[in-house]
Design goal:
153 residues, mainly alpha, DUF1468 domain-containing protein
């Protein structure tokens, strides 16, 4: 058993309980399906399966082995980068637009992953343009517009 299983299970259990409890505060419109139902079910399943993982991790606590990726700086950088990229997109896209922020995020992630910078830049530009176009024009989901998006519209 790996040490992180206990803590991961505990985190999922706590998150599942928090989701289910928070959902109980949702307004229930008359004559409609309750918006509480889906989050309560998802939170309940998260808590239940998280509890199973926690129990399994606690039971096997004597056989602790650390995962091999902990010795790789690149793997740790990739894991840390993704949540930071989500936060950065949320904070920066409103000011600079979706295309440039997505391009920079994909470029940096590709460089950390080991892609040569020129290929990472090409990939970043392609993904930034295509994903923004798909969200806005195909799915109809508005994304933050910046100077580049205004030129393309």
């Amino acid at each position: 058993m790996r040490l992180p299983d206990f803590w991961t299970g505990l985190a999922f259990t706590a998150l599942g309980i928090a989701i289910a409890v928070y959902a109980q505060g949702f307004h229930v419109p008359a004559g409609a399906a309750s918006p509480r139902l889906l989050p309560t079910i998802v939170g309940g399943f998260m808590a239940m399966f998280g509890g199973l993982i926690t129990f399994r991790g606690w039971r096997g606590a004597g056989n602790v082995e650390l995962p091999g990726w902990l010795s790789s700086r690149r793997q740790i950088a990739l894991i840390v980068f993704l949540p930071l990229a989500v936060v950065a997109y949320g904070l920066l896209a409103l000011r600079f637009g979706s295309i440039p922020v997505a391009t920079v995020i994909v470029f940096l992630h590709s460089v950390i992953y080991g892609l040569r910078p020129i290929y990472a830049l090409i990939l970043g530009l392609f993904i930034g343009l295509v994903v923004t176009y798909l969200f806005i024009h195909v799915l109809g989901i508005p994304l933050p517009a910046g100077p580049i998006e205004e030129l393309l519209s």
